[in-house]
Design brief:
The structure holds 2 protein chains of 2 kinds. Chain A is built from 2 helices and 8 strands, in the order βββαββββαβ. By secondary structure, chain A is α+β, with helices and mostly antiparallel strands. By secondary structure, chain B is an alpha+beta fold. Chain B folds into 2 domains: about 100 residues, Alpha-Beta Plaits; about 110 residues, Alpha-Beta Plaits (2-Layer Sandwich), CATH 3.30.70.120. In chain B, about 20% of the residues lie in helices and about 35% in strands. Classes of the chains: A alpha+beta, B alpha+beta. At the A-B interface, strand 1, helix 1, strand 4 and strand 8 of A face strand 13, helix 4 and strand 16 of B.
């Protein structure tokens, strides 16, 4: 089945080396998204980049550096994203959060408990 | 561009082995000339010679010399030469620089004028749409990976360009965690395709996405195209062999 609606996309940029209570930050955020019932979350690893600290991040096979740039994307309805933001404020100590309005088309195999909005 | 008439011929004499910040001097000089818009430059390699230190440099099979003489030549207007001289003196290090007046009988022409006719998508600028398609790496369409089929379909539909990204961790509608870690249960990572084109072109493509994507997410957002340029290819690219993608 197919649904179409307006939504928000949040992109969080930080480093692969960032930790939260000893756990990689990206894993912690994905777990938090799941706990809050966000529709989905995906983590991407960049191959090179730099951020506010102007320190070059790159992952190389030679150095086994674990500080590649990380981008985490969450797409959901505005009211859901609103729930996530306060948690991000606490969890992301150093990083960038970008939000944009998007138009979503969602395809799913199951039609059970589908929202009323088509 | 240079025009016929008075000009300056600039020559720099170097040794092949000389370095500037770890890269061969001739290549730093050539880069500098290129980025500063010099109309052309040539590096010539001598086969034997000697310089200020009176060491004979020669190429022979017995002693392979990496200190052969090099000469970099270019012809430019007097103003341009004066503008570049300071930096070139610095780059040349211990090398010699010679400038002589010359007369340009016939300036070189750019061999291929910029193609005046461009396909529609090659003139994009300003407002456009970005389409992102989220699917799983294991999703298939007919006999091939879905992401692969989508790329071929976009290409066949003349979408300006598309890139496929693989997520390293994530979850979707099924709440199942996908990770690229070796010991993880599911290796079906999240795949994201990102394409930028005009709204009309992307909307025309959507019915095809409807057919091909059984489960997934398509996200459209507004973008501003700041620059879209390409290098003309000498030969026309052959059409994608798999026409099946454009059904």
């Amino acid at each position: 089945m197919k649904e179409q609606y307006q939504a928000r996309m949040v992109r969080i940029h930080f480093g692969e080396g960032d930790k939260l209570q000893g756990k990689p930050l990206h894993e912690a955020i994905v777990a938090k998204c799941m706990e809050l019932g966000m529709a989905g979350a995906t983590v991407y690893r960049g191959i090179e980049g730099y951020g506010a600290s102007t320190r070059i991040h790159h992952s190389s096979h030679w150095t086994f550096s674990k500080d590649a740039p990380i981008m985490l994307t969450v797409i959901d309805r505005e009211e859901e994203i609103e729930k996530l933001i306060p948690h991000l404020d606490v969890m992301v100590e150093e990083g960038l959060i970008a939000m944009s309005r998007v138009e979503v088309i969602r395809y799913s195999r199951t039609s059970a408990n589908a929202p009323a909005q088509a | 561009m240079l025009s016929a008439g008075k000009a300056m011929k600039f020559s720099i004499y170097l040794s092949e082995g000389s370095k500037h910040h770890g890269v061969p001097t001739y290549s730093s000089i050539l880069d500098f000339l290129f980025y500063r818009g010099v109309s052309g430059a040539t590096v010539l390699k001598g086969i034997a010679g000697f310089g200020a230190d009176h060491h004979m440099h020669a190429a022979s099979i017995v002693e392979i010399s990496d200190n052969l003489p090099l000469k970099i030549e270019f012809i430019e207007s007097r103003e341009k030469v004066n503008e570049l001289l300071g930096k070139l003196e610095e780059l040349a290090g211990t090398g010699m620089i010679e400038v002589q007046e010359t007369t340009l009988a016939k300036p070189a022409k750019i061999s291929k004028p910029k193609a005046p006719v461009l396909p529609a998508h090659l003139k994009m600028e300003g407002k456009a749409k970005m389409m992102r398609i989220y699917i799983g790496e294991a999703d298939r369409w007919k006999d091939k990976p879905l992401y692969n089929a989508l790329v071929e379909a976009m290409r066949a539909n003349d979408i300006a360009g598309v890139t496929v990204y693989r997520g390293i961790l994530g979850y979707g509608a099924h709440r199942r965690m996908h990770s690229d870690k070796t010991l993880h249960l599911s290796h079906d990572c999240s795949i994201m395709l990102s394409a930028v084109d005009t709204e009309e072109k992307l909307r025309l493509f959507l019915p095809l996405v409807d057919q091909m994507v059984e489960e997934g997410l398509v996200v459209l957002s507004d973008v501003d195209i700041i620059k879209y340029s390409y290098r003309a290819l000498d030969v026309d690219m052959p059409e994608s062999p798999s026409g099946s993608a454009s059904v």
